[in-house]
Amino acid sequence: MVARAEPVPGFRSALARLFTIQAAFTYERMLGVGFAFASEPLLRGLRRREGGGPAFGAALAREASYFNAHPYLAALAVGALARAENDGVAPERIERLRAALIGPLGSLGDRLIWAGWLPACAAVGLLLVALSAGGWAVLAFLVLYNLMHVSLRVWGLRVGWRAGVGVAGALASPALQRALEVVAPLAALVVGAALPAVLGWFPFRAHWEVFAAAAAALGFAELVRAMQGRATGLVVAAFALAVVVAVGMAW
Amino acid sequence: MTAATVAAVLAVGAVAGLDLVSVPQAMLGRPLVAGFLGGLVAGSPLAGLATGAVLELFAFETLPVGASRYPDWGPAAAASGALAAQRGGAWDAAWMAGIMVVALVFAWLGGFGMLLVRRLNAGHLRRRLPALESGDHRALLALQVGGIARDLVRAAVATGLTLWIGGRVARHVELGWRAPHALADVAVVGTALGVAVWSAWRLFGNGKARGWLAAGAVAGVALVAGMLAW
Asked: Which of A23, A96, A179, B21 has the fewest CB atoms nearer than 10 Å to its CB?
């Protein structure tokens, strides 16, 4: 039984390296190389054991194989798999666990962060810009976003190390499930408030321009929806603005 | 723009681009942040923030999921923010329309730049494979450092190109604009907000979140009405 307060050997170094987990991203191994780089401080115990050099090398090579997940939640897998290596779990079992973690960690991170927390924080930033908060809007966005970001990495590494091969239980933790339930409504509420508020922030010359811009936004949103699968909103917007620029100059 | 300012903008853009995927994914590369920082080093953080806020609306569409190709907003936003700071003066929608076209194109091209970096990383990985398979931790370090260096160069080049081309295009549009300025106002706000509205609907338009989105929109409209009345 692992005690709750058990220290993680090499924790700080592994945590710092986790911030670079995608630095050597390739389509062949995805996060694999960064995963091994972050795991290395946690595996040093293997090298220090008598005759542990080959075990350390083999573990490191295993950790550098294909891995893909949300970069923040990959910390959970880094901790769990490094713990399994240190505990002498059979390599086949470690590889099965590694493969099993890819889907859930990717899906969880995408829903929690990319489709929830990030839009929510960006909307808070825009809302503050609309309320003339200036540079404080940027600071608030960064602090708010990174509170969750850094907490997830720290939590993931600690919980993964504690749980080892039993890491699946951590994914069902009530706090995580609650966060998943709350984040989408929260983000929807803030984004819903921010977008009209931003409209009021633009320095229009007349009130009718506000209504014209709102109508143009709704029309353009419909155009982007209709173009889905053929072009992204970015491409449609660049093209539309280029046409407007050409018209405005040839007027 | 002085050489020192250009160097500072390139540094901001490079860090913002690096943040997107490589290090540390702390959202320094979001347009709101990169635009502000670009403006800050060029002398007017609020001008940079305004440009960044417009680009942030476009960036709502971007979900940086896994191995998909997505735009790199950081370098384009940093350069646009710096150009806005350098231009100074009041909001000019014609200038903004010009800089937005260039920023959107370079953000989009930034996604292809990332593909190139990933292919170069793969080549480096193949050369280091024997050492990696034998568990040599120095090979890991070399691969990580190589990846970061390539991404840093990519982001700096993207910033430099946006700065160089964007400055010329935006100035040309500002001077050559003949239509009523309301057209540019409506086009810039309509496209940026339109992309954001579609993205919000795609993310939250189904299921339980839809009601929250509507509630937020009602609150936002009330806020705008208050701002207009003020």
From this structure: A96
Contacts with B169 (C-beta within 8 Å, 6 or more apart), sequence order: B98, B99, B101, B102
Look up the ipTM and state it: 0.94
Residue labelled with tokens 């408030």: A193
- Kindly determine whether residue B209 and residue A209, on different chains, have CB atoms separated by under 8 Å: no
Q: From CA B76, how far away is CA B51, in angstroms rounded?
A: 10
What are the C-alpha distances in Å from A108 to residues A158, A171, A179?
18, 9, 11
pTM: 0.94
On chain A, the residues whose CB falls within 8 A of the CB of B215 are 189, 192
Q: Which residues of B touch A68 (CB under 8 A)?
A: 66-67
Distant-in-sequence, close-in-space partners of B56: CB < 8 Å, separation ≥ 6: A122, A125, A126, B30, B31, B32, B35
> Whole-angstrom Cα distance, residue B128 to residue A88?
27
Dist. CA B217–CA A132, nearest whole Å: 19
Residues 6 or more apart whose CB falls under 8 angstroms from that of B129 comprise: none
Among B15, B11, B60, B56, residue whose Cα is nearest residue B35: B56
